[in-house]
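Hey, does this match?
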Amino acid sequence: MRSARVVGVLAALALAGCSALPGGDEPTSPPATSSGSESTTDEGPVTGAGRPLDEAELHRVLPSPADLGPDWAHDPAKTIFETETSDISPSACAPLLLKGPERDKVLSSQRARVQDNYVRGESTVGHGSFMGIWAYSTDEAMPSRLFDDAGSLIGTCSSMEVTQADTGSVSTYRSSQLPFPNMGDRTLALRTKISQSLRTVTMDYVVIKVGHNTVFVVNGDYLEEPDTSATERAARAALKNLREST
């Protein structure tokens, strides 16, 4: 398939990823995707947290390390990052990772993109926990059906091969549902194990749509299952900041 943005971690491991506020007691989301609202409309004027933001406004959405929990700090190495993929096989599984022409069209209307990176304790590449959080604001809202389509593929696309464009490295992705609270207009939540050569990293991959804004939280650990409570704290902090930035 055509080149698309993915999420990567250092040491040539890549996670394909690309991107109404949380209440106090939302139910756990059903497999892979959930709806926080009855509306499926993606068009029309949006105010508050869902309106298009400029870069300065969007930057205020990013959480502080303290929001994630104890021992988290900024990661100057930016271990988790976006890169490009040259192929996803089987290609029919690309929508599980929110890939395709509709998403490309939305990103072509991008107004702003921001990112921050975090590391827990004395983690180093190949050992420990890392998190990347980024957000997009676009003139055209991400269609809710992309999240629904992703959810419908979680059973049939539990394994796929992803080729990283810049290095040619091929990684095996094994994804399953990640129980996660409903947040925003739509929430996509996956637990993905990415294997390449002799190294494997496990990641929480969460994407939340709020009107014209999309927040991504990627929490990876090389040795253990990611701390999903930290993933949730990061997501809640970002959406709280999104509300307060408007």
In short: The helical segments are 55-59, 65-68, 101-107, 144-152, 228-244.
